[in-house]
Amino acid sequence: MKKSESTKLYILQKGMAFAATYGLYSISIGKMAAAANMSRTGVISHFTNKEDMQVAILAYTEEEFKKQVVEPSIDEDALVHLNNFQQKWLQWLSFLEMCCPGQHTSCPLIKASVEFKADPNCLVRQFMQDQQARMINYLTKLAVNCQEQGYFSNDIEPNIFAYEFYGLYTGHVVQTSLINNPTLAHTYEKVVSGLIARYMCNTIPK
């Protein structure tokens, strides 16, 4: 990797940590320069402007999400894949905390979807709309796979499952960002397990 590429990667890592702690909306070239211990010129040389940097940070975060959550979850068995995913998704918050020692963190992707909702022409909002669509499509496909392998009832609507599953997770993220309660993760796991059970067939394939 070239030095310029490694420097940009370092900035994006710091940017993800900053967004996980303080949000993406408040980020600036100056704040990123301070976080990365670089000059403003050194930071901006890798991006067209602040908005370009914000989108790059979100794209980097989504790629990290794939590495930490999506890829390790894959299994030929659709139900195992789904259960792996829900466990890894829960652990994503712990991964972000490790990236920001001593800081209270939350998911930058979910934060950004709220922070930029009032600006329809913003490139960050457009990125988040696409990212949300990718997430819902992924969750819908997980449900379709469970249905095709005989785990989920043929009467269920995979897109409704995806909507419910995503809603539970975003609600969990909001609660953990506001309430310091170590039992929330256990509660979330129980609720998600109940959701999956509700969509299951009465007869499970062998």
Descriptive keywords:
about 210 residues, elongated
Give a short overview.
This protein is mainly α.
**What's the total number of strands?**
0
Mean pLDDT: 91
Summarize the helix and strand pattern as letters. HHHHHHHHH
Measured as a percent range, the helix fraction is over 70%
Largest sheet: none
Beta content comes to under 5%
Low-confidence stretches: none
Shape: elongated
Distance between the termini: 48 Å
Rg from Cα = 19 Å
What structural category do the secondary elements indicate?
A: mainly alpha
- Compute the number of helices: 9
Question: What does this protein structure show overall?
Answer:
- The chain has 206 residues and is mostly helical.
- The protein contains nine helices and no strands.
- It has helices spanning 3-22, 29-35, 40-44, 50-73, 78-99, 108-115, 123-148, 158-178, 184-199.
- Helix 1 crosses helix 4 (50-73) and helix 7 crosses helix 8 (158-178).
- The longest helix is centred in the middle third of the chain and has 26 residues, at 123-148.
- The protein is elongated.
Topology of helices and strands:
Blueprint: H1 3-22, H2 29-35, H3 40-44, H4 50-73, H5 78-99, H6 108-115, H7 123-148, H8 158-178, H9 184-199
Helix pairs in contact: 1-4, 4-5, 4-7, 5-7, 7-8, 8-9
